[in-house]
Amino acid sequence: SLNCLDWSLLTPATKEMLAQAEQLKGRFQGDPSFEYNFAEINPQAAEKLFEGGKEPVIKEEARLIATIEQIDRAVGIVPRGAFVKTPLGSVHENRHFEGLSLVEAKKLSSYFHFTEPVNLKNKTLLEKANLDPSTDFLDSLEHDIPQGSWSVQLEKGGAVVVLRSLLWLGLTFYHVPLTKQYGYIYFGTGEKNMDLPFML
């Protein structure tokens, strides 16, 4: 949105957009038509783009799309049991999900990344034996690298559990135990906290 009244959907991010956006550092300009010139940022990347017949620039709109995709992949999370996987492999919202108990809601292992699993495929058969294939088909937050990249807090006397990402500062996830209420929102600069390993 340019006026905070009229909104339009962003196009899906491409692999090329993601690769280009990862090379950009610093804050956003606030102008979707602003162009970042790779010749000034990374001359080698600009040369490759120029050889491929492409302009060595990326618009801020494309960088925004790629950054939103990166944040969603890295820190888009759901509580355990909110979604189920059928024996045929399709994933659906669990209509019987009534929320996590307060004890479970305080554990990082009760939350999953809502993306294609990566760490799950690397687990041994012994580790997979204790998992329920209908609910434990995603990667758990407890194995995120670096360890300690999530902050778990209780608000309103334990009525709300809040998770905050220390890798993408500004990402806040909430869950009201024993209810279906959960969600996340990001209010940040769009910059990954690369200093996190040194801060822990």
Automatic annotation (TrEMBL):
<dbReference type="GO" id="GO:0035082">
    <property type="term" value="P:axoneme assembly"/>
</dbReference>
<dbReference type="InterPro" id="IPR055316">
    <property type="entry name" value="RSP9"/>
</dbReference>
<dbReference type="GO" id="GO:0044458">
    <property type="term" value="P:motile cilium assembly"/>
</dbReference>
<keyword id="KW-0969">Cilium</keyword>
<keyword id="KW-0970">Cilium biogenesis/degradation</keyword>
<dbReference type="GO" id="GO:0060091">
    <property type="term" value="C:kinocilium"/>
</dbReference>
<keyword id="KW-0282">Flagellum</keyword>
<keyword id="KW-0963">Cytoplasm</keyword>
<keyword id="KW-0206">Cytoskeleton</keyword>
<keyword id="KW-0966">Cell projection</keyword>
<protein>
    <recommendedName>
        <fullName>Radial spoke head protein 9 homolog</fullName>
    </recommendedName>
</protein>
<dbReference type="GO" id="GO:0060294">
    <property type="term" value="P:cilium movement involved in cell motility"/>
</dbReference>
<dbReference type="GO" id="GO:0005930">
    <property type="term" value="C:axoneme"/>
</dbReference>
<comment type="similarity">
    <text>Belongs to the flagellar radial spoke RSP9 family.</text>
</comment>
